Amino acid sequence: MEVTLTVNGASHTLDVPDNALLVEVLRERLGLTGTHVGCDTSQCGACVVHMDGCAVKSCTVLAGQADGADVTTIEGIGTVDALHPMQEAFRDCHALQCGFCTPGMIMAAIDLVQSTDDLDEQGVRDGLEGNLCRCTGYHNIVRAVLAARDNM
Amino acid sequence: MYQFNYRKASSVEQAADLQASAEDGVYLAGGMTLIPTLKQRLAAPSDVIDVGGLDGLRGVDVGATVRIGALTTHAEVAASAEVRGAIPALSDLAEGIGDAHVRNRGTIGGSVANSDPAADYPAAVVGLAATVHTNRRSIAGDDFFTDLFETALEEGEIITSVEFPVPARAAYAKFPNPASRYAIVGVMVAEVDGAVRVGVTGAGRCAFRSVELEAALAGGLSVAALDGVSVPSGDFNSDLHASAEYRAHLVVVMARRAVKELA
């Protein structure tokens, strides 16, 4: 099956198995390993990317469903020299320990800030319901998202 | 996942044709239940027919009733000011499904068609006296859910929209599983066309109306009317999250919370 999708601004046309997942295409075909697979059961949120502007769990999207879509991954939001404000805030607030959940947290948090008016602490906690941090570093993650909210 | 043929439908008619010609075809809407099911190898369809691109089945139409296209996501329902203006309980319910990323993909049609015993929307379909419209007919909400993961839908039938009458008042209270956010028990209490309706999800094999609670509330929607009322736990679900007896207890507690919100 052939799919064409735009990832971080570049168009790719790929021949993939009918049962390929978006996350597999990103990681294994395009080498974008910043998107992580944590639970593989749609619960942990490590695989969150933006598809047509919305945060989605890429382990629960078939490649065929992403055909024609515009996808943004953690690699597409900033560079080492010019971090995205959310990445900057995560660094400043020490919002990561092992870092495994971080790409999904950041992609989810960017969508949350962009789509929510008057985002407060409870709103951040509710909005990140679908992202698990097994280091349990939630407090600093919430601080980072609130800090980034003011800089985005 | 087992292998399957992925087919993208460009119209409802084409989707139905693809399903009819497949050895064992299933429809894919948002995929928030179907894809995890496939990944766990709990289903092995020959063909997955993606109806997610049928934009004609997306959107809300609020007038004398609230009609929600089958492919409208939970996030779209939750964010709709028109839906909130007409049936705020439905907005609250949609806003409480899963997590934000699931709500961005999951659809009302997919949720209803699946008849997961712990899904939220079925409580609204029976509690609010909705009508489920398909490509073949219209099905009353009371007749739609028939058993665990079973509905009145025939082989190949596609839900096109779900239509809710605007209730005089309604409230939904849910006791979520803290990990999955699925309803261990969810109760929709509503006053529709002068009658009190109580839709329950999470407790039984599929969503149902509680005759005990409706009888208790028929004389007036007050929390006191539920004092001493109980519901039988006989055929309720019992699993590691909650026993049947605990679910029966929660049904009354959630009903009390919903009624309190209405007062």
What percentage of amino acids of chain B are in beta strands?
25-35%
Structural Rg of chain A: 15 Å
Along the chain, the helix and strand elements of chain B come as EHEHEEEHHHHHHEEHEEEEEEEHH
Oligomer: heterodimer
Mean pLDDT of chain A: 97
Provide the low-confidence segments of chain A as ranges: none
* Broad structural category of chain A: alpha+beta
Give the largest interface pair and sizes: A-B, 29 and 29 residues
- Enumerate the strands of the largest sheet of chain A in spatial order, edge to edge or round the barrel: 2-1-5-3-4
Strands ordered across the widest β-sheet of chain B: 4-5-10-6-7
Give the termini separation of chain B.
49 Å
Structural class of chain B: alpha+beta
What is the H/E order of chain A? EEHEEEHHHH
In short:
The complex is a heterodimer of chains A (152) and B (263). Chain A is α+β, with helices and mostly antiparallel strands and 152 residues long.
List the helices and strands and how they pair.
The complex is a heterodimer of chains A (152) and B (263).
Chain A: E1 2-7, E2 10-15, H1 22-29, E3 48-51, E4 54-57, E5 70-72, H2 85-92, H3 102-115, H4 121-127, H5 138-149
Parallel strand pairs in A: 1-5
Antiparallel strand pairs in A: 1-2, 3-4, 3-5
Chain B: E1 5-8, H1 12-21, E2 25-28, H2 34-39, E3 47-50, E4 60-62, E5 65-69, H3 74-79, H4 81-86, H5 88-95, H6 100-105, H7 108-114, H8 121-127, E6 131-134, E7 138-140, H9 141-144, E8 145-147, E9 150-151, E10 159-165, E11 169-176, E12 183-192, E13 195-201, E14 208-209, H10 211-217, H11 244-262
Parallel strand pairs in B: 1-3, 2-3
Antiparallel strand pairs in B: 4-5, 5-10, 6-7, 6-10, 8-9, 11-12, 12-13, 13-14
Describe this structure in words.
The complex is a heterodimer of chains A (about 150) and B (about 260). Chain A is of the alpha+beta class and about 150 residues long. Chain A has 5 helices and 5 strands; from the N terminus they run ββαβββαααα. Chain A has 2 domains: about 1-75, Beta-grasp domain (Ubiquitin-like (UB roll), Roll), CATH 3.10.20.30; about 85-150, [2Fe-2S]-binding domain (DNA polymerase, domain 1, Orthogonal Bundle). Helix content of chain A is about 30%, strand content about 15%. In chain A, β1 (about 1-5) and β2 (about 10-15) form a beta hairpin. The longest helix of chain A is centred in the last third of the chain and has 14 residues, at about 100-115. Chain A is globular, with a radius of gyration of 15 Å. Chain B has about 260 residues and is of the alpha+beta class. Chain B has 3 domains: about 5-50, Uridine Diphospho-n-acetylenolpyruvylglucosamine Reductase, domain 2 (2-Layer Sandwich); about 55-165, Uridine Diphospho-n-acetylenolpyruvylglucosamine Reductase, domain 3, CATH 3.30.465; about 170-260, Enolase-like, domain 1. Chain B has helices spanning about 10-20, 35-40, 75-80, 80-85, 90-95, 100-105, 110-115, 120-125, 140-145, 210-215, 245-260; strands spanning about 5-10, 25-30, 45-50, 60, 65-70, 130-135, 140, 145, 150, 160-165, 170-175, 185-190, 195-200, 210. A 5-stranded antiparallel sheet of chain B has the order 4-5-10-6-7. A 4-stranded antiparallel sheet of chain B has the order 11-12-13-14, with helices on both faces. Chain B has a 3-stranded parallel sheet with strand order 1-3-2, with helices on one face. In chain B, a hairpin with a 6-residue loop joins β11 and β12 (about 185-190). The radius of gyration of chain B is 18 Å and the shape is globular. Chain B starts with a strand and ends with a helix. Classes of the chains: A alpha+beta (about 150), B alpha+beta (about 260).
